[in-house]
Specification:
This protein is of the alpha+beta class. Helix content is 53%, strand content 19%. The protein has two domains: 128 residues, no CATH class; 141 residues, Heat Shock Protein 90 (2-Layer Sandwich), CATH 3.30.565.10. It has a five-stranded mixed beta sheet, covered by helices on one side. A hairpin with a 3-residue loop joins strand 8 and strand 9.
């Protein structure tokens, strides 16, 4: 799955799961509040039933002729009797501040006694709230939320794949087109470059026409694009042969290769290349790294601008005096098919290839740019 597909899928899943979570959380909270209220009401009903039983017991004591009265104790609830002025008389319940007293851990019920039994006008009964059903309710809701979360995550992932399916199909069609294009371009590009080399070898180089130089520039441009497109298609199958590479010589050779393009744009080229700079990497990857940075610096430079190429044991750098990169494009400039300046041609794959090569070897890539002033791209070699 491509990075753009992963990003789109992640955004879809984030929005989908977040909205689903909020909706289910609201529904779960409403259900929990209603169910908890129902459970507490059932316990309150039990308390009222006990209150009626105690009133019957008090009435029986009132009507009895026993010399010693024993206050009825209930194993489930605590109770107390109050007089008509709501003053505490007696009971198994420690007298609260008033009949209206309430706390979070107990249930209370006040019943009026008519007619008065044993001088009592009010009966207060209370019991500890049974939190076990509420805890079980919370556990059931939590398990339901976890199960629903897993189900909707799987469903969201499946829907997300359907959501990005058109994008995948478009990318696959584009990749097939690129493969077919590169296959068709191979033969004519090779033929053109071979014949140009023969003309340069056996002809008089000083008498070469401007037309032939333009053909050479265009052919080398096509050749570089062909190499880049081939790399994009075959990168996952590409076998790298790591060697101790003379980067100084390679950069000088590539500057000769691009000299015609730089000259055609009137660029003033400044080289600062240290001798005998060696790097452990694949030769073709080194070509792609150097070629893409130099060609971008030429392409996006201003006519008669300045091109600086530097190389030392710390890294490789290319600086131009071109159009630069806008600040809002700096975070996405490395993405495939991203072009900050659409006035110039190209597929927007150069920096993506550079980024892939840099990541493959653990190098550090840095970009410093100012719009309308220029750009400097640096690659620092992996630390020993």
């Amino acid at each position: 799955m491509l990075r753009s597909e992963k990003r789109s899928l992640a955004r879809f899943l984030l929005i989908y799961l977040l909205s689903t979570f909020l909706l289910f959380s609201l529904a779960a909270w409403m259900f929990y509040s209603s169910a908890k209220h129902h459970l507490l009401n059932r316990q309150q009903e039990v308390l009222k039933y006990r209150s009626e039983q105690l009133k019957s017991t008090l009435r029986a004591l009132h009507q009895s002729n026993a010399k010693e009265l024993v206050y009825p104790n209930d194993p489930v609830v605590k109770s107390a009797i109050y007089d008509v002025e709501k003053k505490y008389i007696f009971g198994s319940l420690q007298p609260p501040q008033s009949l209206e007293y309430r706390d979070e851990e107990r249930l209370y019920d006040v019943a009026k006694i008519e007619p008065y039994y044993l001088g009592a006008a009010y009966l207060l009964v209370s019991k500890t709230i049974d939190h076990a059903p509420v805890a079980q309710l919370q556990k059931n809701i939590l398990l339901f939320m976890i199960g629903a979360g897993i189900f909707f995550t799987i469903l969201g992932f499946y829907l997300g794949r359907l959501f990005i399916a058109p994008m995948r199909e478009s990318i696959e069609r584009m990749n097939h087109f690129i493969q077919d294009t590169t296959h068709e371009l191979n033969t004519p590009i090779s033929t053109i470059l071979t014949n140009i080399e023969m003309i340069e070898t056996f002809g008089n180089r000083e008498e070469q026409s401007e037309e032939l130089k333009r053909i050479e520039i265009a052919s080398k441009t096509l050749s570089r694009i062909y190499d880049d497109l081939t790399y994009l298609n075959l990168n996952h199958q590409y076998h790298r042969q790591i060697v101790r590479l003379d980067m100084s010589r390679l950069v000088e050779e590539r500057m000769v290769y691009f000299s015609a393009m730089a000259k055609a744009k009137g660029l003033h080229t400044v080289l600062d290349i240290d001798p005998q700079v060696y790097v452990e990497m694949d030769r073709n990857d080194a070509f792609r790294l150097v070629d893409n940075l130099i060609s971008n610096a030429i392409k996006y430079n201003k006519p008669n601008g300045r091109l600086e190429v530097g190389l030392d044991n710390k890294g490789f750098r290319v600086k131009d005096t071109g159009v630069g990169i806008r600040k809002e494009d700096m975070d996405t400039i490395m993405q495939r098919f991203k072009r900050a300046d659409k006035s110039e041609g190209g597929f927007g794959i150069g920096l993506d290839i550079v980024s892939q090569v840099v990541k493959s070897y653990g190098f550090e890539l840095g970009i410093a740019s100012q719009e309308h002033k220029g750009t400097e791209v640096s690659v620092r070699w992996k630390k020993a």
